[in-house]
Structures are given as structure tokens and as C-alpha cells.
Design a protein that fits this description.
The chain is mostly helical and 172 residues long. It is 57% helix and 5% strand. The protein has seven helices and two strands. A two-stranded antiparallel sheet has the order 1-2. Strand 1 and strand 2 form a beta hairpin. Helix 3 packs parallel to helix 5. The longest helix has 23 residues. The two termini are 31 Å apart. The relative contact order is 0.24. The model has no long low-confidence stretch (mean pLDDT 97).
Length: 172
């Protein structure tokens, strides 16, 4: 596996891809599950609804968002790995979070869901051959490869874990 070239994803996603220095993306994605479990286990029930500022997401909503993004990136990877030629829409993460009801769920429940989603995505990605990893589709109006989507999945989680540490004071 090689890292995706900058031409394999929209510039907006460069921040996520740059979070992943490793080339073995399957190992990174797999190991993140344990990191996420350990992180979530350290969050008290009182901290789950904490927001570092008015209008910002709660810890539960951040984990709900991680699940939403895992679904979106995973579906894109699935569709493009199968040769989908239709353009897939973007998603408004704020609208998704507002409609998710994540604040009514426990962090344990949200983490369980995220675990299932990541496990399903890993099962798909492990089956891909080099041709499938290199397939290109269009999402949010921009071309993206399956390989780049896998790096985006991992980088997105790393980004939000950093936010949770820096702005919420968790997992330090």
C-alpha cells in the first residue's frame, strides 16, 4: 500500500490525510478501534455531555459524528471500489449531528456503533486488490480514490481525538 498522492483527493481533505504518516493504512484503521475504546472508557458520564463552548458539539455528538463520517467515507469506498460512476453527494456534518440524537445515547452505545461500522469497513478494505484501491469516484464534486478515502477515515478520527484532547481536555 502506498500513500495517496495529493491528486487523489480534494484539498479540503489534505488535513485528514496528513494526519496519517504510516503507509499500512489497514493496521492504522484496525488499531484505532482500540484507541477509541480506551479513550471512550476514560470519559465519565458527566463529561459525555460536555461542550467546550456554547454551540459546540458535546463529546457524545463528536462520537456520533465519527460514526456518521465512518458511514459516509465507508460507503464512498465501497461504491467506488465497485466501479460506481455516479457522483455521490457531500454531507453537512452540522446538519447530521443536529439530526442524529447522539446526545440521547450513551458514549458506550455510540462507541459500539462506531466499532461495528469500522469493522465492516475493514472487512471491505481487506478484500480489495490494487486495482480497486486505485479506483476513482466523485464525491462532494471532487474526484477521490478508494485509497485516499481509507486515509481520510483514519485521519478524520485522529483529527477529532486531537480536538477532544486540546479543546475538551480529554484523553491527554
Amino acid at each position: 500500500m502506498r500513500r495517496p498522492a495529493e491528486s487523489e483527493y480534494a484539498p479540503y481533505y489534505g488535513g485528514y490525510v496528513s494526519q496519517v504518516a504510516e503507509e499500512d493504512i489497514l493496521t492504522v484503521l484496525d488499531e484505532q478501534l482500540q484507541q477509541l475504546r480506551e479513550f471512550a472508557a476514560e470519559v465519565s458520564s458527566e463529561q459525555e455531555t460536555y461542550r467546550y463552548a456554547p454551540g459546540k458539539w458535546s463529546v457524545r455528538e463528536v462520537f456520533g459524528h465519527l460514526g456518521d463520517a465512518e458511514r459516509v467515507f465507508g460507503f464512498r469506498a465501497f461504491a467506488f471500489s465497485r466501479g460506481e460512476q455516479q457522483s455521490l453527494p457531500g454531507f453537512d456534518e452540522n446538519q447530521y449531528v443536529a439530526s442524529s440524537g447522539s446526545d440521547r445515547e450513551s458514549l458506550v452505545s455510540l462507541m459500539r456503533e462506531l466499532t461495528y461500522l469500522r469493522a465492516g469497513n475493514l472487512a471491505l478494505l481487506r478484500r480489495l486488490d490494487e486495482e480497486a484501491w486505485s479506483r476513482v469516484g466523485t464525491a462532494s464534486g471532487h474526484p477521490v480514490t478508494v485509497r485516499a478515502l481509507a486515509f481520510m477515515m483514519a485521519g478524520h478520527v485522529r483529527h477529532h481525538l486531537k480536538v477532544l484532547a486540546e479543546r475538551y481536555g480529554l484523553g491527554g
